[in-house]
From TrEMBL:
Pfam families associated with the record: SIS_2 (PF13580)
Domain of life: Bacteria
PANTHER family noted in UniProt: SEDOHEPTULOSE 7-PHOSPHATE ISOMERASE / DNAA INITIATOR-ASSOCIATING FACTOR FOR REPLICATION INITIATION
Keyword set, alphabetical order: Isomerase
Stored InterPro entries: GmhA/DiaA, SIS_dom, SIS_dom_sf, SIS_GmhA/DiaA_subfam
EC number: 5.3.1.28
Protein name: D-sedoheptulose 7-phosphate isomerase
GO molecular function: isomerase activity
Name of the top EC class for this enzyme: isomerase
Database matches in SUPFAM superfamilies: SIS domain (SSF53697)
Domain SIS, first and last residues per copy: 35-197
Amino acid sequence: MTARTAVREAFDRRTEPGRAVAADADAIARACHAMAVRFHAGGRLIVFGNGGACTDAQHVAVEFVHPVVVGKRALPAFALTGDVATLTAIARTEGFDEVYAAQLRTLARPDDIALGLSDGGPCANVRRGLAVAAEMGLLTVALTGGDGDMGRGADHVLRARTADPLVAKEVHVTVYHVLWELVHVFFEHPGTLRRETAR
Ligand SMILES: O=C(CO)[C@@H](O)[C@H](O)[C@H](O)[C@H](O)COP(=O)(O)O
């Protein structure tokens, strides 16, 4: 295989999952509308995940808190992945599976939005975070890959249709940028924000 073929194949493997996102336009629009309703009601976006999704959580938060597009309103958002002291203290006494759930119990409010990110692997701490968020009344959104099982029970599940964790990660970046864009579209048309969109 030549290097050129390898590069082509690498991009071909990414084309279909990327295209498949558009097929989920309705699910993405419903999630965006529900998020915009929560922001409009004073809710904040709380994001979490592991490994690369840990940094993605911070990427998502900065997109909302400090929009790169001039003129767009800053919206309250924070990641639960940046404070190593809190993460390690919780992991030491309550176990790694509790590192997001424990923070949500203390920091979250019922009108907030919880966004859990995973490439599709076994991530008990993200599942626990979403489960506790749901118990507290938060809107729950799961951005996942693989079989999408991680998001089971969440209000909105957005799945990258690929078992390849690298490709899932790339699709996620596109999806959360679209989430940001569309939340602002709804925000700029408050008439659309009267009621939360059903799943
Ligand atoms: O960035 C990547 C893959 O693109 C990896 O670091 C990946 O995030 C880590 O292996 C994570 O621990 C995977 O966890 P998950 O997203 O499958 O829950």
